[in-house]
């Protein structure tokens, strides 16, 4: 049974704090194992990569068969259901249109002192996209990671995807094709992350690695961070639904289960000021679970991590939502926009009863790679800026250097950095 | 002696690659030690923090003396040289003016299907600012870290700074005061990072930690990444000067030494198409070193990691500059703006002979926290966006759900996520 909390109960604060602190992932300490793999690939390149692939994916490859060929990609696209490929194209176009609006503006201006200042954005040269194999191989995620990179102007976009026992999901290859991926290698795990970061004879290194993966992948990304850029370390996913008495219990239950079916450590939460709705949703979840193919996973997630929190007034839901900092926040109240304006921490907000989160997962256009596990307190969903970097620009002439220089010299000396001061003084004939 | 390379030599490519690959930091593996400290503070809070401070800073504190008092800050400001405080204020105002221009715009739009989309930026609630103690305690860095946070709208800005043997740099406290820091604690090292990330009875946790530190601090930041946000892991600093025959050898030498005096692992590089200038700069560096207070550090940096690279035409400097991806790039050529437009990878670009990098360190207004050690290939200097996060917004009505829903249902089923499909179908009366 999911937890039921009531804001009115005297020990609510303690209960809520415990609820927030509960760990949803048994984070097996795989750091040492990941480090050994990363170091080996850094040192021995392809040989280590092929060895690890033989061991973990039970797949015998050579350097020349690492890369998925154009013919294989073409064949994969042909094998896919046409309606599904059309849906992927529909999604692709909407995701592209949304992300085109994220392209940043450069700035250049001259201040009162005549100093020219500004900055300039440019795309990173190359990016690596990690795609999990097996059940979590989602073609939609390929689009969500690849399209912002292409929109940013990344020239070389390299995908790695494990193919355990040689199996590759044709839809993943089709999505890579639609998303503009330039190279695909059939490798995964920490070894694939290491190959992307350090490069091998076959796989040229990239500047940044994005995409979700298992604990080994996450540990490897943490290890290579600095050598290359990485996106967030993805944790278990969650949805928070905030609804008033007008909420449709069946729809809300369906949304809670859509989140829960991802993973047994996913989390679905309802906050409502309506006891009637709370009870109805609890019942509806149990009812809908009965016919769900992934009832095992969804049921475990709901039982272990699900929660229904009753509040006296919806006002009280605002600080709770900020503390939860949900990856996905659905608001089904009389005026969802006004309510959304009061919440600070959320990865994405879905407004009104006709915006189930699944729309955002696939075809809304916004990105479904969002900060999980409370990280919406400090980070954002994936976007075009993640594939660009900003270079600042500064230009003084002699007059500007005269105006600014003395203060710089004072600070240089105060910090014990005499050569800093002299580099200014030598241009101004100042001691 | 610094390395001298010539683009014209037959093995230039190999030499340049080796030059790029050379490690400038002996990264002592302090991960295990940092992990033990972080875990201890996470578990035992203040008690562990006080114990580590006693051990590493030789300082006996209690929970109530951890925080620097308003009276101490006031006293510190009074003790500082007035001209230096004025220079800090001048810097503060210029940095603030520059960063105010970085505040991002929200977006909200309705597409052809009638779907409302957009995003909204909000400040993170709290940030921690790590400031090193000892010789690397730079008041200018306090301003560079604090001001973007305040401009972003961060409400609670917490500074930690170690005070070995009880010593605190009054200028650091003055800069914190000018920069709007809300709380200051006299702790440092991995224990301070852990306290900021996990919180203790005395120090409430923050959402993100920024600021440079030693190897233990860097390791601790890597460990708490995910629990909280972090900025980049700072590596050794570098400058690349690109100059043609018009370059002033004495000015360039002064700039190379300003970089070199930071740290024995700092790096100063000149690329020029003028052998005359190359020789003159090499001589000028040796001459200026003789009277430099930090000649030991600067000389070691220049001898071990300095480089002068000759090219036949300045054109050839562009790919070299992109491969080096310097933290600081100074361009002293006939048309520096045109040259800068061709370089993709640099943290900050200083245009023309009258813009020594030291201006950017202190009073230019742009941020001096910049990507080091080739990370300008994939990351940006510190800015206002580092203290904000983006929440995406999506809103469908019944018509929009009818238009987008079927494609979402197709993709949900193709990914084996039936509950995703049903959460859409239940609203559309679709099976």
From TrEMBL, chains A, B:
Catalytic function, reaction form: L-histidinol + 2 NAD(+) + H2O = L-histidine + 2 NADH + 3 H(+)
Listed Pfam families: Histidinol_dh
Record keyword Zinc present: yes
Cofactor(s) listed in the protein's UniProt record: Zn(2+)
Gene3D superfamilies linked to this entry: 1.20.5.1300, Nitrogenase molybdenum iron protein domain
Cofactor note: Binds 1 zinc ion per subunit.
GO molecular function, one term: NAD binding
Pathway: Amino-acid biosynthesis; L-histidine biosynthesis; L-histidine from 5-phospho-alpha-D-ribose 1-diphosphate: step 9/9
One GO cellular component term noted in the UniProt record for this chain: cytosol
Binding site for Zn(2+): 259, 262, 361, 420
Family: Belongs to the histidinol dehydrogenase family.
Identification of the protein by name: Histidinol dehydrogenase
Gene name of this polypeptide: hisD
């Amino acid at each position: 049974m999911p937890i039921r909390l009531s804001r009115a109960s005297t020990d609510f604060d303690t209960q809520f704090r415990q609820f927030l602190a509960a760990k949803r992932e048994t984070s097996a300490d795989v750091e040492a194992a990941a480090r050994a793999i990363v170091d080996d690939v850094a040192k021995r390149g392809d040989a280590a990569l092929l060895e690890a692939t033989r061991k973990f994916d039970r797949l015998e490859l050579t350097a020349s068969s690492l890369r998925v060929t154009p013919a294989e990609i073409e064949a994969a696209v042909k094998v896919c259901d046409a309606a599904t490929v059309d849906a992927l194209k529909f999604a692709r176009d909407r995701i592209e249109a949304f992300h085109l609006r994220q392209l940043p503006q450069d700035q250049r201006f001259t201040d009162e002192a005549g100093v020219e200042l500004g900055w300039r954005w440019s795309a990173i040269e190359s990016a690596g996209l990690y795609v999990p194999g097996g059940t979590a191989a989602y073609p939609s995620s390929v689009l969500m990671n690849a399209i912002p990179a292409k929109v940013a102007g990344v020239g070389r976009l390299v995908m790695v995807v494990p193919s355990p026992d040689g199996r590759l999901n044709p839809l993943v290859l089709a999505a890579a094709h639609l998303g503009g991926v330039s190279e695909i290698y059939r490798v995964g795990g920490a070894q694939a992350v290491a190959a992307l970061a350090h490069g091998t004879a076959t796989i040229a290194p990239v500047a940044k690695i994005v995409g979700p993966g298992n604990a080994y992948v996450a540990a490897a990304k943490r290890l290579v961070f600095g050598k290359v850029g990485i996106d967030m370390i993805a944790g278990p996913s969650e949805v928070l639904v905030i609804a008033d008495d007008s909420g449709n219990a069946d729809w809300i239950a369906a949304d809670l289960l859509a989140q829960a079916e991802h993973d047994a450590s996913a989390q679905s939460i309802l906050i409502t000021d309506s006891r009637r709705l709370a009870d109805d949703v609890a019942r509806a979840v149990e009812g809908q679970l009965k016919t769900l193919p992934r009832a095992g996973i969804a049921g475990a997630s709901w039982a272990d991590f699900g929660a229904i929190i009753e509040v006296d007034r919806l006002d009280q839901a605002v600080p709770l939502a900020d503390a939860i900092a949900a990856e996905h926040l659905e608001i089904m109240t009389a005026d969802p926009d006004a309510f959304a304006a009061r919440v600070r921490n959320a990865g994405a907000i879905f407004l009104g009863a006709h915006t189930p989160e699944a729309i955002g997962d696939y075809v809304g256009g916004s990105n479904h790679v969002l900060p999980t596990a409370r990280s919406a307190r400090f980070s954002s969903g994936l976007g075009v800026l993640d594939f660009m970097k900003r270079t600042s620009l500064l230009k003084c002439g002699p007059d500007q250097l005269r105006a600014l220089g003395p203060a710089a010299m004072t600070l240089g000396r105060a910090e014990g950095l005499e050569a800093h001061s002299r580099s200014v003084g030598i241009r101004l004939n100042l001691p």
